[in-house]
Amino acid sequence: MKIISLLFGLMLLLSCAKEVDIDIPQLGPQLVVDGQIEVNGYPLVLLTLSKNIADTVSLATYLNSVVNDASVNVICNNDTFSLSPIPIYELPLVSQKRMAEILRLELEEVQLLPIEVYTTEDFIGEVNKSYQLLIDYDGKIFTGSTYLPPPTQLDTLYWKREPQTQDYGFSWARLTDPYQTLDAYRWEVRRINQNEIGEELDPIFRRARGGIFSDAYFNGLAIEFYYQNPLKRKDSIHLKEFRRYYRYGDSVIVKLSKMDQAVYNYYDRKSAQLDAANNPYATPINIPSNISGCLGIWAGFSPWYDTLICID
Known about the structure:
By secondary structure, the chain is α+β, with helices and mostly antiparallel strands. It is built from five helices and 15 strands. The strands form two sheets. Strands 7-6-3-4-5-2-1-15-14-10-11 form an eleven-stranded mixed beta sheet, with helices on one face.
């Protein structure tokens, strides 16, 4: 009798179910800024227009979203510098490499993209200076500012073998964080040795997973940490099962960049959103921008470099 009552109750609930249509609001396209300036580097600003969530995603739609008819300026102190749209393949090689790093693409791929980036060779980024980005597009003014803080160098940098192998290990470092300020860092690497046919193993820097971090839990303290190898294997003798390790004899340039808190907050939230993209139960995450009225980031980085030789 209890089973019959339970079945009847389930049937009643099912009969009351109704299809629900959710009307997702269709927002107009918003300007998206992907801009960076580094110490001793030229400014680079890529402008695109956002798409609705239901739109088809393809290379063609992305290329059609690129904006190249805006007025873009950078202001530092009392100087104003005009940025012009330049095809990526016409940029200096160092800027082409930075665009590949920004877009997370291979260098040869980004060189083929038929898009223009706003830049100038009239100035380079300098430590302890703030740079205001001013964009005039479609009758609207968008402004943002970023600061290039003094870089922080590592105390030590070394390679350490893992117990299960004699030929592979992680990169380890010790960092003493300044106590006067809240600081945030980005860890990037590239190998400078060559493969068996004489090609550079890594023409561009790549960021390891978790490679952007702040000193919220170690402000003013010394910490010791390691990172896995985020680089692609272009040498056939690097064993697949150790692809996240550095091999004995690797020569690696480590690039530790300092950024201000607004830039860190953007990349930290963006990373969290990407990690939660496939989780239907994740809390929606808003990515903060440091540019008024639009999406994206105007990011400043102050890098410090060192070379890691993977030997004992």
